[in-house]
Design a protein that fits this description.
- The complex is a heterodimer of chains A (169) and B (525).
- Chain A has 169 residues and is of the alpha/beta class.
- Chain A has a single domain, classed as 3-Layer(aba) Sandwich (Glutaredoxin).
- Chain A has helices at residues 2-17, 40-44, 59-73, 96-103, 116-120, 149-160, and strands at 29-32, 37-39, 49-54, 81-86, 109-111, 128-132, 138-143.
- In chain A, strands 2-1-5-4-3-6-7 form a 7-stranded mixed beta sheet.
- The longest helix of chain A is centred in the N-terminal third of the chain and has 16 residues, at 2-17.
- Chain A is globular and about 45 Å long.
- The relative contact order of chain A is 0.18.
- With 525 residues, chain B is mainly beta.
- Chain B has one domain.
- In chain B, a hairpin with a 2-residue loop joins strand 12 (254-266) and strand 13 (269-279).
- Chain B is globular.
- Classes of the chains: A alpha/beta (169), B mainly beta (525).
Chain lengths: 169, 525
């Protein structure tokens, strides 16, 4: 067991000291609720993308999404796009489209069965929000939603997407 | 490690790439000390655990190497930690190692997983560990998903225009060799697809834990399609399964499944209807996902013992769901679901001898402002859970009726950014042991800042046979960065929890019953 602990601590030390020259890039191609195939690279070609991983059974997610829709409108000059990624299991995926239709959301809603893509972004449970730059770097990630988080997210986005002084897009 | 040479070859190619190397990962450490109630004896059993999952990804250009390890000293779920072929518990296990190349085609070697269509023919998911307890049917015991659902093999995916082709071959722990292919053609009007899956057991292989599958040589064929016309969408899925081995075929292995959904606007409402007829072999394959036509979480209390469908159960079912939202944030939703075993019937028959299940739910959300809303919900479920057709007398069946009411209010609060208070009432009657239960669940979630929140839960249950039982718990959850490149989520739990869905810091998950103290630290870098 001590050997295991040393191994674990070594991993963590290497990770902490690793020279992060570049943020991780993650790619995916998912189907949307209309059956079309959507590639993250195609979305990125238009600008940075805010991915919101959610599920029909996730109440905090449903509370967060209207705020995200409003928030993205304030970043039109930076071409920020919002893509909703539903992580429902294949068993409950059919309930996504009626819910989306009843809400009248006007952005891509992608299907990520069992959250496999969310896990590539290191998310474990919805809601999970990720900002991907136009070049594919993961600039920001946050799990959970509490009332008021949208204001903190807005500040983060203003900082990250600032034309000058912020991080590179 | 049968794919070790392939992995090494791809790893060499990864190292030879000229691009920049990046490392990212997620480490989750969990500690717990307390007791767990044994469902059968009712006794409290001591439990202490320390476990860690480290998930590392190394990327360079089109290559990604993902390795995940689990270390347990011991696991929270002592019945299901990783074991050697001799049954000894392993304290270190490689739960995942996958090398991926994302070029003109996507190639993955190592632990691979994918889903074809709706998952009726093939639904493999990423190997998970430690963090995914599930509550079993009528008991509140935990059932962790501590198994290797993926295949140890190769997955190739290619897309040319509207056509997507997938091929997978390898070995799974529960079945043996799996070779599978899927093609799907997507157009604006809809899509069509087909799958072929062959599963062959490997005799005398210690990894195959389901020994009864020694003669398995099963072929599953699937066709599916979706047609869209405006807001109306119809999808159909049909699967048939047959044994290549004559002896097994004579024993009744094989079967078929049909799954259909229709989404349509009706007088300003959205209607979803689902139908399933699922009659596969009564052999546990763990290769596919049976469709479910019930709500997974009708209410928090009912969800503790919701109707569950497994991949080896035969069932036919129907779901009707009506929903509508209005300007100003109000929305209404009603649903009804009916299911039963199959005994010559195509539609569910609500007969006790067929393990009939009924479910009715209603939900009303009133959003007065972004900071203030009220949500009301109601659900009623009724099910029998006993002998299959042709078995013993139905008088021996378990029989349950559950009615639940819930309300949740979110509002601003002094000294807090906001607070959510909620409660649920449940009344349950059982025929199996003549019990009537009443339950009350109250919880409040306090949001003092964007960095942390506190969830307080009080849970009361009164049963005619057991006793009155109060329990309470608190969970604090905090998000922080230390140093700037590593983000952490710390969770501290104390108290006694019956298990079920728990929400803290705006994140909901299923947790197992526990009485004691738990710490969890998830670090992402």
């Amino acid at each position: 067991m001590p050997r295991r602990i040393v191994l674990l601590l070594s991993f963590l030390l290497v990770a902490a000291l690793w020279p992060l020259h570049a943020a991780e890039t993650v790619s995916f191609r998912l189907k949307d609720i209309n059956g079309s195939s959507v590639d993250l690279a195609d979305l990125r070609a238009k600008g940075p993308v805010l991915l919101s991983f959610w599920a029909t059974y996730c109440e905090p997610c449903k509370k967060e999404i209207p705020h995200l829709i409003d928030l993205v409108k304030g970043f039109q000059s930076q071409n920020l796009q919002l893509a909703l990624v539903a992580v429902d299991s294949p068993r409950s995926q059919k309930q996504i489209k009626p819910y989306v239709n009843s809400k009248g959301w006007g952005m891509p809603v992608l299907l990520d069965a069992n959250g496999q893509t969310m896990k590539k972004f290191k998310g474990s449970n919805p809601p999970y929000t990720v900002l991907v730059s136009a070049t594919g770097e993961v600039l920001y990630a946050h799990g959970g939603y509490k009332p008021g988080d949208e204001k903190a997210l807005e500040e983060e986005l203003r900082h990250i997407l600032a034309p000058a002084g912020g991080k590179e897009q | 490690m049968r794919h070790f040479p392939g992995l090494m070859l791809l790893a060499g190619a990864l190292a030879a790439q000229a691009g920049e190397l990046s490392l990212s990962g997620l480490n989750t450490t969990r500690f717990g000390k307390g007791t767990v109630r044994d469902d059968y004896s009712g006794a409290d059993v001591d439990r202490q655990y320390v476990e860690d999952v480290l998930d590392l990804t190394l990327s360079r250009d089109a290559f990604r190497l993902n390795v995940a390890t689990a270390m347990v000293w011991p696991s929270e779920f002592p019945d299901a930690p990783p074991r050697t072929g001799d049954g000894e518990i392993k304290d270190l296990d490689f739960i995942r190692r996958t090398l991926e190349w994302n070029g003109p085609v996507n190639v993955q070697v190592g632990d691979v997983w994918t889903t074809f269509g709706n998952g009726l023919a093939l639904s493999l998911y990423r190997d998970e560990n430690l963090v995914n307890p599930r509550l079993t049917g009528n008991n509140r015991a935990e059932l962790p998903t501590f198994w290797d659902s993926g295949a140890d093999g190769t997955l190739v995916e290619a897309q040319r225009g509207d056509l997507i082709v997938k091929a997978l071959w390898g070995k799974t722990d529960y079945v043996g060799h799996v070779a599978a292919g899927n093609a799907e053609w997507n157009r604006a009007w809809g899509s069509v697809g087909g799958s072929l899956v062959r599963a062959t057991a490997i005799p005398q292989n210690d990894d195959i834990r389901a020994g009864s599958l020694a003669t398995l040589d099963l072929v599953t064929r699937e066709v599916y399609g979706t047609a869209r016309l405006g807001q109306v969408e119809l999808s159909l899925n049909h699967v048939d399964q047959h044994q290549l081995d004559q002896e097994a075929r004579n024993a009744g292995a094989g079967g078929l499944a049909t799954y259909a959904t229709l989404t349509s606007p009706v007088l300003g409402w959205t209607l979803l209807s689902e139908y399933k007829y699922y009659r596969f072999a009564r052999q546990t394959l763990f290769l596919n996902a049976a469709p479910i036509v019930q709500r997974e979480i009708p209410t928090k209390l009912i969800a503790r013992s919701t109707h569950r469908v497994f991949s080896n159960e035969n069932e036919t079912g129907l779901l009707l769901d009506l929903s509508r939202s209005w300007e100003g944030g109000h929305s209404l939703r009603f649903s009804g679901a009916w299911a039963s075993h199959i005994d010559g019937n195509v539609l569910p028959r609500l007969e006790e001898s067929l393990n009939a299940y009924q479910e009715y739910t209603a939900g009303w959300l009133m959003e007065f402002s972004p900071e203030r809303h009220l949500e009301l919900s109601a659900a009623y479920t009724e099910e029998t859970n006993g002998w299959l057709p042709g078995g013993e007398s139905v008088a021996d069946n378990d029989w349950y009726r559950r009615a639940g009411l819930g309300a949740a209010l979110l509002m601003p609060a002094p000294l807090l950014r906001s607070v959510e208070v909620a409660g649920e009432l449940l009344h349950k009657t059982e025929r199996g042991n003549g019990e009537a239960h009443s339950g009350l669940l109250l919880w409040a979630e306090l949001f003092p800042s964007t960095l942390w929140s506190l969830n307080l839960t009080a849970d009361y249950e009164e049963a005619s046979i057991i006793r009155q039982d109060w329990m309470g718990s608190g969970e604090l959850r905090a998000d922080f960065r230390l140093p700037e490149s590593i983000s952490h989520t710390l969770t501290v739990f104390a108290g006694r929890l019956r298990g079920g869905q728990v929400c803290s810091n705006g994140n909901c998950r299923i947790v197992a019953p526990f009485n004691g103290v738990k710490l969890s630290l998830a670090s992402s870098f």
